[in-house]
Amino acid sequence: MTRTIGIGVIGMGWMGMLHSQSYQQIPYLFADSDIEPHLVICADEVEARAQKAKRILGFERYSTDWRDVIADPDVQVVNITAPNNLHVEIVKAAAAAGKHIMCEKPVGRNPQETAEIEYAARQAGVLSFVGFNYRWAPLVQYTQQLIQEGKLGKLTHYRGRFFAMYGSNPNSVLSWRFQEDVAGLGTLGDLMSHVGDMAHMLVGPVKRLVASRETFIQKRPLATYGEGTHFTISTGGPQGEVTNEDYVGAMVEFENGTRGTFEVCRAIFGPKCEHAFEINGTQGAVSWNFEKMNELHAYLPDGTSGHDGYTQLYSGPEHPFHASINPGPAVALGYNDLKVIEAHQFLKSVAENKQGVPGFAEALAVAELQDAMIRSWESGTWEDVKSLRK
Ligand SMILES: NC(=O)c1ccc[n+]([C@@H]2O[C@H](COP(=O)([O-])OP(=O)(O)OC[C@H]3O[C@@H](n4cnc5c(N)ncnc54)[C@H](O)[C@@H]3O)[C@@H](O)[C@H]2O)c1
């Protein structure tokens, strides 16, 4: 039986537009689940953005006040794609109104806010989902299968990183991401949240770590209100101060004994969007890089030493979720496809009234990792990962 789910979206920038389009694709890409998303209302404080989203995406109405989304009786699901400083207030209001919540990472501005958010949703008994979209790449899912089936043996090493170029040019504008009062943490929130979630999914929880941080570019040109993205470049205008970190690096020990490193940077030359991992076990190894997300390098020796070595696999219909997007082996998927898979996983959990993964519990686990990194860069020593659950 078709299940119609009323959706309200808050924040119609890059992610708000993409999440909305992703919901729209569910009925034909995931036809079997009989879910029919209904775009009810969108909100943005910049009226032109809300108006444009309504017009081109087909929302029934728009508002410049996000509270109208929460109050709308036709909305069952609130999608939060506004800047991080609004997440706590919006989640609390949505949870109090009994609405299910899709919230973009890093969820809170800092670990404490994420813990508050997780608590608010848990107390209200609403379902949550988080935009850790890289999980959904078919070859990442396949890597998880290989690990669970024991194909890599016992894991010994994990190296996770996210090197992005969006801040490598000193003239990349001072978007909200570089401002502590709006974004909260810098790359520890923006990029390390993805690295931490990926490592948790593939390897498991971290026991202890030692971390350091750096802000390589201290000042940037001011952004124009309501225009552009964090990829926008501007020259010649007034400058403002960057108030959170560009870089975080950590050495980690997982609870299962795996040793590893996590590294993230937004001001690095060379990699453009290198969200990558390398995993080594006692019987095999794999490596993956989002820049070539449809390729997996797998070392799965079969005892024939003459041709031992890494093999390059391409994403295809035999890997999880690929066939929902297209039926062809090596017919490449892209970033936006991961958002469609994510949107479907969320609405499926809503239709079944069953908490999905990753929800706020998984975001809290990442917040606990971030909390230990902050303590470590302050103390300069190893720190244990501790529970922040309220
Ligand atoms: N999962 C991912 O890969 C990924 C990628 C990018 C961004 N994000 C996350 O998505 C969220 C949004 O990021 P973005 O890149 O889309 O930002 P963006 O700046 O492109 O969009 C944010 C939008 O929110 C609007 N906004 C600001 N204040 C508002 C208010 N009071 N009420 C309603 N709307 C308001 C802005 O006008 C803007 O249109 C952030 O939490 C970010 O961390 C996740």
Please describe what this structure looks like.
The chain has 390 residues and is an alpha/beta fold. It has twelve helices and 17 strands. The protein has a nine-stranded mixed beta sheet with strand order 16-15-14-13-7-12-11-8-17. Helix 4 packs parallel to helix 5 (111-124) and helix 5 runs antiparallel to helix 12 (360-379). The protein starts with a strand and ends in a 6-residue tail after the last strand. It binds nicotinamide-adenine-dinucleotide. Nicotinamide-adenine-dinucleotide (NAD) binds next to helix 1.
Beta strands, count: 17
- C-alpha end-to-end distance: 38 Å
CATH architecture label name of the largest domain: 2-Layer Sandwich
Rounded average pLDDT? 97
Number of helices: 12
Number of domains: 2
Cross-sheet strand order for the largest sheet: 16-15-14-13-7-12-11-8-17
Q: Characterize the main sheet.
A: 9 strands, mixed
Bound molecules: nicotinamide-adenine-dinucleotide
Specify the structural class: alpha/beta
Q: Give me the Rg, rounded.
A: 21 Å
The CATH superfamily of the largest domain turns out to be: Dihydrodipicolinate Reductase, domain 2
Q: Return the CATH topology of the largest domain.
A: Dihydrodipicolinate Reductase, domain 2
Listing every helix as H and every strand as E from the N terminus to the C terminus, the arrangement reads: EHEHEHEHEHEHEHHHEEEEEEEEEHHHE
